[in-house]
């Protein structure tokens, strides 16, 4: 009789432990199924080498907006190397850089009427030519035509010992109606002042 009771107790204990274990596994499976699925791509995301960016500022009543793609140096000689001297450059990567102003600007005694312009340069070792061109929507300098130039003038570049890895434009305030536009890349910075036309 005792053996029978002992056998029944052992059987009950075994069944209880088995049921508990099965309940645990069911719960674990349910939790796993309920977890949100995240798709993992086997391909690493490609780094953009020349990110598209812009800068803008208000100088008095003038809103000045510059839109460009910002290439990197990546251990290259840029001016006089990747970009030959004395050749037109779209002052950025991919599409031509453009500048828009809602007010006329006076630059080196010349007027740039309000509007949107392709911004080009001709880099050289001692002097750069700055160009505002009426054709603002073009790929690189593919469609550049000198006859569409609205304004041209020359500036002297500043050379630094430090490398600016990515091309960067800035619009800076000098006074309520005066400002400056600069571009810096590699060891070169080029800038020019302007006055907002009344």
TrEMBL record:
Superkingdom of the source species: Bacteria
Signal peptide: 1-23
Region annotated Disordered, chain positions: 26-49
Basic and acidic residues bias: start-end ranges: 26-37
Pfam family, one: DUF2911
PROSITE patterns per UniProt: PROKAR_LIPOPROTEIN
Keyword line: Signal
Keyword Signal: yes
Natural source organism: Tenacibaculum polynesiense
InterPro entries linked: DUF2911
Entry protein name: DUF2911 domain-containing protein
């Amino acid at each position: 009789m005792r053996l029978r009771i002992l056998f029944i107790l052992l059987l009950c204990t075994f069944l209880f432990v088995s049921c508990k274990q099965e309940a645990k596994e069911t719960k674990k499976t349910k939790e796993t199924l309920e977890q949100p699925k995240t798709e993992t791509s086997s391909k690493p995301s490609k780094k953009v080498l020349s990110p598209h960016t812009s800068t803008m500022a208000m100088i008095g009543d003038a809103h000045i907006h510059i839109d460009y793609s910002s290439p990197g140096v990546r251990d290259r000689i840029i001016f006089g190397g990747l970009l030959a001297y004395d050749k037109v450059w779209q002052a950025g990567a991919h599409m031509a850089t453009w500048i828009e102003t809602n007010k006329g600007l006076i630059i080196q005694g010349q007027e740039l009427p309000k509007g949107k312009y392709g911004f080009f340069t001709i880099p050289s070792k001692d002097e750069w030519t700055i160009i505002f061109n009426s054709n603002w929507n073009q790929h690189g300098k593919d469609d550049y035509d000198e006859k569409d130039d609205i304004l041209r003038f020359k500036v002297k570049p500043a050379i630094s010992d430090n490398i600016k890895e990515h091309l960067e434009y800035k619009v800076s305030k000098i006074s309520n109606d005066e400002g400056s536009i600069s571009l810096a890349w590699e060891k070169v910075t080029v800038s020019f002042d302007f006055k907002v036309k009344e």
